[in-house]
Design a protein that fits this description.
By secondary structure, this protein is an alpha/beta fold. The protein contains twelve helices and five strands. Strands 2-1-3-4-5 form a five-stranded parallel sheet, with helices on both faces. Helix 1 (12-22) links the parallel strand 1 (4-8) and strand 2. InterPro entries: CheY-like_superfamily, Homeodomain-like_sf, HTH_AraC, HTH_AraC-typ_CS, Sig_transdc_resp-reg_receiver, Tscrpt_reg_AraC-type_HTH.
Amino acid sequence: MSESILVVDDNQEILEFLTEVLGDTYKVHAAESGETALQIMDNEVIHLIVLDVMMPGIDGFELCQLVKSNVNYCHIPIILLTSKNGHRAHIEGLEVGADAYIKKPFSPKFLQIQIANLLNNRLKIKTHFASSPFEDVRVMAHSKTDEAFLKTLDDYIRKNIEDTQLDIETLAQHMNMSRPTFYRKIKSLSALSPKELVDITRLKKAASLIAENEYSLSEISRMVGYSSQSLFSRNFQKYFNASPQEYFNALPR
């Protein structure tokens, strides 16, 4: 159960029902209000939100808009649940950034399929990014806000790529985030830890340098911030399924 689902509904019976329906597949966090949901998001890695529209205080539309407009959370897909009928309510849900919209009453199986589809589609993109030497980090963005976030982060990592001590504290500070918030953002957005994201960025740069055929593998290892060539080779093999030398030999001439 690697994915965490946040279920938000002011009806305790519905919360218990959804927790039971989803609990065998996902780690479920339950919130009876928008305010509680925001507190949970501040402390947990959340991969998807199932959100009721009709709630006192911060309602579902408002919470959806808050999530989608906040750089800390905007990558999280949201499924809105509503008893409202008509196209107007559906349009309003899409306008505030919802990824899916389900009318009550609904089939539990239908909800499970919607969740699985959203998560699987994003996982495919994350896997493709991690295993493709030349795929841009922005392929994982699902909004303009995330695209700008990833571009800024990637530019900073590449600018400091020779720094063997580049760490999560430095990156979080550059992105104006606390360390925990930055970690949750990267983990949920990419399925990678910040350290793994830095490693992959180093290796993508290495793949580009190998293709240029102007430097030795030991030089490239140092140029992308590896103090150990053996670690560089192991990580390259891990992500790209080929050693640096095998990768070079397979390049078209």
